[in-house]
Write a structure and sequence with these properties.
alpha+beta; 4 domains; Tetrahydropterin Synthase, Chain A; three-stranded antiparallel beta sheet; four-stranded antiparallel beta sheet
Length: 332
């Protein structure tokens, strides 16, 4: 005997079944509520992995994901750092990292601090297992390469800026080749010193000597700057005096030339008279400085000034001295 299909009873079961499904869905939603949403904070990025395929999520705020299908891995995008050559907490030297050799075969201890950030979260999480260790190894390799190309004096004193720039450029180039999702922010030399106290004292003595040298050079330059204007003024004065003396000599020479030229013209006209006048003028200059010696034959000589015989200004005439025999005595 066939049973009659009860439509009301069927719809009653269907209704209760739908209600049960909704209840189950609500329970699942409540259970997986934390697994359906995730929050991205400032200075943070996320990688949303869907069935093994990663995708970067950079927008800040609340995001939805499918439970059991998608999962999220977050990364910190703030600037981070690590030391090379020393311990961050104790500040003690790590010899195997700090000890290096320079181009002139000297040993030094050099400490560095490396700052970096995550530039690509997907590559940071999946391109390598230990990206930070890779960056540290790259930094150590570049540091030793660059330090080995500088002498010890540059590493300890004047070449630090150039060394830092060279290391930074080399690290950035190698990071670009490795492509591990990290970007270098900066690398700085914290300290560099000889590995032993004796060598350190020697280098300090050298540095002191260099400072003394600089001080001496500065003092010498100061003294030079003070004395050069004075010397230049004296030189200018000497040159001016020489020029004045030269002009005076030239004027005197030109005057003598003119005088001799006029005398020559007079000589051409009257040779005899001119000769006599020239002789008299010469004698006027020579005779005042001469002395007269009178010898009477007895061996006694008497010296008299010539002006006593040529005293024209006193109005007396010069008499010729004669001896007892009436002979004139000559005077020289």
């Amino acid at each position: 005997m066939k049973q009659k299909f009860d439509v009301k009873k069927f719809f009653g079961f269907a209704r209760w079944g739908a209600i049960g499904v909704l209840v189950v869905i609500l329970v699942l939603m409540l259970f997986f509520s934390n697994a359906m949403w995730y929050q991205i904070e400032e200075q943070e990025q996320a990688v949303l992995v869907t069935l093994g395929k990663p995708q970067a999520v950079t927008d800040k705020g609340l995001h939805f994901k499918l439970p059991l299908v998608q999962h999220v891995r977050k990364v910190d995008t703030t600037i981070q750092g690590f030391p090379i050559g020393y311990e961050m907490d104790s500040n003690e030297t790590v010899t195997e990292e700090a000890l290096m050799i320079t181009s002139d075969y000297n040993f030094i201890d050099a400490d560095f601090f490396v700052e970096y950030r995550i530039s690509d979260p997907v590559k940071y999480l999946y391109a390598s297992d230990t990206p930070k260790e890779i960056l540290k190894n790259i930094a150590q390799s570049c540091i030793r390469t660059v330090i080995g190309s500088f002498d010890v004096d540059s590493v300890l004193t004047t070449g630090k800026s150039e060394i830092q720039a060279s290391i930074r450029d080399m690290i950035e180039e190698k990071l670009e080749q490795q492509d591990i999702g990290l970007a270098l922010v900066n690398i700085t030399i914290q300290d560099s010193e000889p590995p032993t106290q004796e060598v350190m004292k020697a280098f300090k003595a050298v540095e002191t000597a260099k400072q003394g040298k600089e001080t001496a050079l500065n003092n010498a330059n100061k003294y030079r700057n003070e004395k050069l204007p004075e010397a230049q003024a004296q030189a200018d004065e000497i040159v001016k005096d020489a020029e004045a003396q030269k002009q005076t000599r030239i004027n005197e020479a030109e005057a003598q030339v003119a005088r001799f030229q006029a005398m020559y013209e007079e000589y051409i006209k009257n040779p005899v008279v001119t000769k006599q006048r020239m002789f008299y003028e010469a004698m006027e200059q020579v005779l005042p400085g001469m002395k007269v010696v009178i010898d009477d034959g007895s061996g006694v000589q008497k010296m008299l000034p010539l002006d006593s015989f040529t005293a024209e200004e006193s109005g007396t005439d010069t008499d010729t001295s004669e001896d007892s025999s009436g002979e004139e005595k000559s005077s020289d």
